[in-house]
């Protein structure tokens, strides 16, 4: 190292006192890391700071060495001097282990406090506070209301927030910023230090952390610390053999083989995937290969997670398949390689994940992205290039979230017993996410809380006072993480909990006899205990199963990434149109992106086919609309949120024109619609050309009223306002009634704001719509379905879920449907109806009264349709029900019991039943496979149907 750099390194440590410098020598810290070199001087001077640096560059010591120094040099200590806040309990455990040595050497007491801390330990901390307390945002909320702990917190001089980027984009983070202001009321000014992975908006995150205070940003560039390779595996003879063992096709077997080879080539490999579903499916494949690879994600029990963490750390496992929770620095020992299976979707995510490798000072972090199809490859290439260039997405802070306002108003009342409304408003608006909160919004929230008896508003004195419900509400809502029902999964053979299942999965798929994957193993459901919220299972040996479904596991692809994919298409397309050979186009991409000839060539083949067909290729500035039958696809390279916004807008406006429901599926490059007959691409283009961009927000809010997503969010927000007691749930208070009850309240306003913030991009969509109408973005109609448009149907996003279910799963579906009930009603005499199990229906149902075979098969709850059929005087709505019944009767008359079976499936109406039957499956298993595929399709898209 040059002398100048050595001197600079020494200078950083000279800002610290003798005790800490002695500890550094004892610990073998002779030269600071770059973050330490640059950040220790301002931190030692007491500045607020955001330190941005890759994982493994000594960020924790960067923050804590000046903090330790300050505490060690202090003459008078009576309470907690420093708080170290992490977003995960598991990080608390790791951080305590990491800081203990320094505490022992410097004679400082370091302790941990979170939800699992025993009552005895909590009492001990209140009576004899540690010098440094490692905790979570939620535990800080509770501490601020404790009498003894408030005294201890009044001595806080430093707050360090680890992984601050993770909190900045969540409501947990917005809640924490107000807690910082509440802490300031106790402790006065204190130093705020944030530790962050690379983010695209450092100043925004720093303001989030510090509010109105001055701050310093110390940002260490990624430069040459990361090395990426994007690869699409070539199918080999080995994969053909492997496919039989894995019960999948050779293409998917090649993915598993490529990942297995990477794990074998390295000592310890993290294999990141984007969803828990994929983690489970990939884990099941490795289990069949007897590979020493574990599975780790948030729906596994704490015991199961710790077990695999320890096994990986000890070398018992060579690989760990994991999801985003492993991004946050949980200690699993040294990692020498990271595999990302499928595009990581975001630049920040790729940097954070690959940054887990090569923790030793000076090592380059190496990562391999294994891709599945053309979209996946182009997307991964764009993200890898952007990561190397440091083009990272900004943090999306929740500005003005009213349920957080409600929660923190109650927190302020808990702090003081009674508090001035004006002082509470001023405190809230000192926190960065709430600086623009209006007095009227604040007053509306207070009135809602008063109406829900969570506090009393003394208008005469302008005071907020405790009520009988304050205490119970506050401690039930320490966290802003939404309350989502989950079921504990218990292995009845070992009596251990193995994980959890989301309520939606249990409601939609889980029944006794069903098979699914969790922890990489196969389980059959024995029974479901609704009262206890438990699913009891037994382990089985089976080649496949329904992969568990979790809410919110989809990572949205941002617009800049999708636009770069569009730009790649725009570069390649014209060359193919001129007849350029694929090899020449390939070499141009290999020069620019970290990949190989085969990977690029395979991805370009899709564009080459489209150019040869003479159809326009959708790019960053060209939208191509195509359709056939009841399917219309809008090919648009705008990313998830903008495409979601366009999808909801178009489905609502087309539905309004036709009077029929429009279903949709969205990915970053296309929006696929299922439309009524006689609706085609031209109608979609007409809507895009005629809709005023200024009206998008209002149109979307109207459309949202029919969407389950708003009702689901409304229920969660209502719980945070105390408007919906937890025990009520959505089952006791339906979404439509909730919507009607809370319209024109801050609860409704916040639910709409959250859906717009989380799922949609209204302003950007309006801009793009204006560009379409001005001609800056081409809007063209393809004559027929195109290779690029069709590719969305076969996207590799769920590439590990087998196409065909195995015999035991099919048998379970058959048994369930045969035991389901249907209502048979005669459409000829209109007098006879009967509710019966499907298994009891004759091969050709007929009316016992008039012997007609014109018999409809209806859902068991369709009593209103039976009543409409028998009614002599029907209104318009009843007439629509009768027409639907006639469609069902026509199917039953033509196809007998097979039609009854199809109509009895979940979400399969007459149209889809006819489509299933029209396949003329001779094999009964294939017939039930088609039904299962349609049920899955319904479960994925039902929130977009009226």
Protein architecture, described:
This protein has 946 residues and is of the alpha/beta class. 49% of the residues lie in helices and 15% in strands. It contains 40 helices and 29 strands. A hairpin with a 2-residue loop joins strand 19 and strand 20. Helix 23 packs across helix 26, helix 24 crosses helix 25 and helix 26 crosses helix 28. The longest helix is centred in the last third of the chain and has 20 residues. The relative contact order is 0.07. Pfam families: DEAD (PF00270), DEAD_assoc (PF08494), Helicase_C (PF00271), WHD_Lhr (PF19306).
What is the topology?
Layout: H1 3-13, H2 18-27, H3 34-44, E1 49-52, H4 59-73, E2 82-85, H5 89-106, E3 110-113, H6 119-127, E4 132-135, H7 137-143, H8 147-153, E5 158-161, H9 164-168, H10 171-187, E6 191-196, H11 202-210, E7 216-219, E8 226-231, H12 237-246, H13 250-265, E9 269-272, H14 276-288, E10 293-296, H15 302-314, E11 319-322, E12 337-341, H16 347-354, E13 365-370, H17 374-388, H18 402-416, E14 418-420, H19 421-430, H20 439-451, E15 455-458, E16 463-466, H21 470-476, E17 486-491, E18 496-502, H22 503-508, E19 515-518, E20 521-529, E21 534-540, H23 559-577, H24 582-592, H25 597-612, E22 622-628, E23 631-635, H26 639-658, E24 663-667, E25 670-674, H27 681-690, H28 696-704, H29 708-721, H30 729-732, H31 735-742, H32 746-759, H33 762-774, E26 778-781, H34 787-791, H35 807-819, E27 821-826, E28 833-837, E29 855-858, H36 863-870, H37 876-895, H38 897-904, H39 910-917, H40 924-941
Parallel strand pairs: 1-6, 1-7, 2-4, 2-5, 3-4, 5-6, 8-13, 9-11, 9-12, 10-11, 12-13, 17-21, 22-26
Antiparallel strand pairs: 14-16, 15-16, 17-18, 19-20, 20-21, 22-23, 23-25, 24-25, 27-28, 27-29
């Amino acid at each position: 190292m040059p002398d100048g750099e050595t001197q600079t390194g020494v200078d950083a440590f000279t800002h610290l006192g003798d005790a800490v410098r002695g500890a550094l020598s004892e610990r073998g810290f002779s030269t600071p890391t770059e973050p330490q070199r640059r950040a220790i001087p301002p931190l030692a001077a007491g500045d607020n700071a955001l330190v941005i640096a890759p994982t493994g560059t000594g960020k924790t010591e960067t923050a804590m060495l000046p903090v330790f120094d300050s505490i060690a040099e202090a003459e008078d200590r009576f309470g907690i001097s420093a708080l170290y806040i992490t977003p995960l309990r598991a990080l608390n455990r790791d951080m305590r282990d990491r800081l203990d040595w320094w505490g022992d050497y410097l004679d400082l007491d370091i302790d941990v406090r979170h939800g699992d801390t025993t009552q005895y330990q909590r009492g001990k901390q209140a009576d004899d506070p540690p010098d440094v307390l490692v905790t979570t945002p939620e535990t800080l909320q509770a501490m601020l209301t404790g009498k003894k702990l408030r005294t201890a917190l009044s001595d806080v001089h430093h707050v360090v927030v680890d992984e601050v980027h993770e909190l900045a984009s969540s409501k947990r983070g917005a809640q924490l910023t107000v807690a910082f202001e509440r802490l300031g009321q106790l402790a006065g000014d204190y130093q705020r230090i944030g530790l962050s992975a690379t983010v695209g908006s450092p100043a925004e995150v720093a303001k989030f952390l510090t509010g109105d205070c001055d701050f310093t940003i110390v940002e260490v560039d990624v430069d040459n610390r990361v090395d990426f390779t994007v690869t699409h595996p070539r199918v080999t003879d080995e994969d053909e053999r492997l496919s039989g063992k894995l019960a999948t096709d050779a293409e998917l077997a090649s993915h598993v083989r490529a990942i297995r080879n990477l794990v074998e080539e390295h000592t310890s490999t993290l294999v990141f995937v984007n969803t828990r579903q994929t983690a489970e499916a990939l884990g099941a494949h490795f289990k069949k290969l007897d590979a020493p690879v574990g599975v780790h994600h948030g729906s596994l029990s704490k015991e199961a997670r710790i077990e695999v963490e320890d096994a990986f750390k000890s070398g018992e496992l060579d690989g760990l398949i994991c999801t985003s929770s492993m991004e946050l620095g949980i200690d699993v020992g040294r990692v020498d390689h990271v595999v990302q299976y499928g595009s990581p979707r975001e630049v920040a995510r790729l940097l954070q994940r690959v940054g887990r490798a090569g923790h030793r000072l000076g090592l380059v972090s190496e990562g391999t992205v294994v891709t599945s199809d053309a979209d996946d490859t182009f997307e991964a290439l764009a993200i890898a290039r952007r990561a190397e260039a440091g083009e990272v997405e900004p943090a999306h802070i929740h500005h003005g979230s009213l349920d957080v306002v409600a929660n923190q108003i109650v927190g302020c009342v808990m702090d003081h017993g009674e508090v001035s409304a004006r002082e509470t408003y001023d405190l809230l608006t000192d926190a960065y996410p709430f600086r623009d909160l209006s007095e009227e919004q604040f007053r509306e929230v207070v009135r809602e809380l008063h109406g829900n008896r969570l506090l009393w508003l003394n208008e005469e004195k302008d005071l907020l006072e405790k009520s009988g419900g304050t205490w119970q509400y506050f401690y039930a809502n320490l966290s802003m993480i939404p309350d989502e029902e989950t079921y504990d999964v218990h292995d009845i053979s070992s009596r251990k909990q193995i994980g959890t299942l989301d309520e939606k999965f249990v409601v939609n798929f889980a029944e006794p006899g069903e098979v699914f994957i969790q922890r990489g193993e196969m389980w059959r459901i024995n029974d479901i205990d609704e009262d206890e919220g438990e699913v009891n299972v037994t382990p089985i040996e089976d080649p496949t199963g329904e992969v568990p479904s979790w809410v919110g596991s989809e990572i949205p692809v941002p617009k800049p990434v999708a636009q770069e994919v569009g730009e790649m298409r725009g570069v390649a397309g014209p060359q193919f149109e001129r007849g350029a050979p694929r090899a020449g186009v390939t070499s141009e991409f290999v020069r620019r992106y970290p990949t190989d000839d085969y990977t690029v060539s395979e991805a370009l083949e899709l564009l080459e086919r489209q150019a040869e067909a003479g159809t326009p290729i959708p790019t960053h500035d060209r939208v191509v609309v195509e359709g056939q039958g009841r399917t219309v696809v809008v090919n648009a390279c705008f990313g998830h949120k903008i495409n979601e916004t366009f999808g909801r807008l178009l489905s609502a406006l087309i539905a309004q024109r036709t009077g029929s429901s429009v279903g949709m599926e969205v990915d970053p490059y296309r929006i696929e619609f299922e439309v009524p007959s006689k609706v085609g691409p031209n109608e979609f283009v007409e809507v895009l050309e005629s809709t005023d961009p200024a009206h998008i927000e209002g149109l979307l809010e109207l459309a949202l009223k029919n969407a389950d997503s708003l009702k689901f969010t409304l229920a969660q927000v209502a719980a945070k306002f105390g408007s919906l007691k937890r025990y009520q749930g959505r089952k006791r208070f339906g979404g439509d009634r909730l919507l009607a009850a809370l319209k024109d309240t801050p609860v409704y306003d916040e639910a709409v704001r959250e859906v717009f913030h989380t799922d949609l991009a209204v302003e950007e969509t309006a801009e793009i719509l204006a560009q379409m109408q001005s001609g800056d973005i081409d809007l063209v109609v393809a004559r027929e379905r195109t290779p690029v448009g069709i590719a969305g149907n076969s996207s590799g996003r769920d590439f590990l879920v087998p196409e065909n279910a195995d015999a035991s799963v099919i048998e379970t579906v058959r048994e369930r449907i045969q035991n389901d009930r249907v209502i048979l009603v005669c459409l000829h005499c209109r007098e006879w109806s009967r509710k019966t199990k499907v298994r009891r229906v004759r091969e050709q149902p007929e009316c016992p009264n008039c012997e007609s075979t014109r018999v409809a098969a209806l859902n068991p709850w369709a009593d209103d349709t039976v009543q409409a059929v028998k009614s002599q005087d029907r209104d318009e709505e009843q007439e629509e029900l009768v027409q639907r019944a006639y469609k069902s009767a026509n199917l039953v008359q033509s196809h007998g019991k097979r039609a009854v079976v199809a109509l009895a499936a979940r979400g399969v109406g007459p149209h889809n039943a006819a489509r299933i039957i029209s396949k003329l499956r001779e094999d009964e298993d294939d017939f039930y496979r088609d039904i299962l595929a349609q049920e899955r399709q319904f479960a994925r898209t039902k929130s977009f149907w009226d």
